[in-house]
Amino acid sequence: MIKNERQHRITKANAEKFRATLKELAATPRPKNVHPKLWEAQKAGLKSQLQDLVAELHEYETLKTGGPKILELDSLEGLPKVLIQARIAAGLTQEDLAARLGVKPQQIQRYEASDYQTASFARLREIARLLGLRVRETVELVQS
């Protein structure tokens, strides 16, 4: 997941490199010492990686332009991703969120880099409140 503008620029540049490589491969005849299936597998792998990058770019750019009003949360494990998506959709940088929380920007970078593993529950609630999130989830008691 792209979490900030720096990662966005890097991902965009990488996608362009993949496009250029695929274009070059399409224009290059298969070397005689490379099996046809291996040649096709290499191209398929590059296409797959490009698709992943394009999907990440699309998600980030959609969030940046206002994004969806409802973010999917299947379980508490998905909360870190939703917090990051909500920050981006709210038009806030990591620095903006840090200022609103009264912490250094590096703290938000650490939280997001570790998917909020080091954040307390109270901090998670505070961030959700600042981002204007309302979480509605059914909790099921699973018998073990």
Tell me what you see in this structure.
With 144 residues, the protein is mostly helical. Helix content is 62%, strand content 0%. The protein has helices at 5-27, 36-64, 79-89, 94-101, 105-113, 121-130. Helix 1 (5-27) runs antiparallel to helix 2 (36-64), helix 2 crosses helix 3 (79-89) and helix 4 (94-101) crosses helix 5 (105-113). The longest helix has 29 residues, at 36-64. It is elongated.
Q: In a few lines, what is going on in this structure?
A:
62% of the residues lie in helices and 0% in strands.
Q: Which features characterize this protein?
A:
144 residues; elongated
Describe the protein's topology:
Elements: H1 5-27, H2 36-64, H3 79-89, H4 94-101, H5 105-113, H6 121-130
Helix pairs in contact: 1-2, 2-3, 4-5
